[in-house]
Amino acid sequence: MTEAHRPVAIVTGANRGTGLAIAAELHAGGWEAWGLNRTSAGQPWLAEAPCDLESADAVTAAVETVARRRGRIDSLVVNAVTRSLGRIGTLSLPDWRAAFEVNIVSVLPLLQAALPYLRPRKGSIVLMGSHAASRYFEGGAAYCASKAALKALAEVLLLEERPNGVRTTLISPGAIANEIGDDSPFKLSTSSVAQAVRWVVEAPADTAIGELELRPAHLPDMAVTGLNRLQAV
């Protein structure tokens, strides 16, 4: 495949963890991966457009940089996330706002900038959700609420853009071993999540995968099982 014909994917938050693994998996599959990152990943194979996702102007400029340099955008993977954790009674307003600014507010200018380039390519969008969108936990108000909003946005985007040939998928993983040295058998590896993303963006053109849920294959011993689960929440 010549350089001009390589499909181009934008991955936000591709400087570490899951985002870097997604970009690497796409690169290995013949895609040209572009990272939209606030800090550089420093990988020679990864093209990057510096971007602070909390600035709508910066988001638009970064997408336009990719489009100008490559003349096409075939896929957009919205991966960047802020995990603002804290109980409602003590959660700071700046942390609450930061979670929504990155996890949901920044997605709108990102989509609006990319859609004009994705439509002619009949491209794909992957929004990286989370089990937290429906499996709530103490201390997770900001994270859970922002991911629940992203889930709703994904479905509306699928409805609106499918007539234009753009397919949207929400990928909702459980726990991911994002930190270096985290080899928990009860978490998904970043590589496994990345392979799922590549499978989605390379799905047949007549297939729209609305949502893909990923769970770790192994479970720790459960404190509550069977019928007793009904009184465990």
Automatic annotation (TrEMBL):
> Which Pfam families does the entry link to?
adh_short
* InterPro entries per UniProt: NAD(P)-bd_dom_sf, SDR_fam
Which Gene3D superfamilies does this one have? NAD(P)-binding Rossmann-like Domain (3.40.50.720)
Q: Which domain of life does the protein's organism represent?
A: Bacteria
SUPFAM superfamilies linked: NAD(P)-binding Rossmann-fold domains
Q: Tell me the protein's name.
A: NAD(P)-dependent dehydrogenase (Short-subunit alcohol dehydrogenase family)
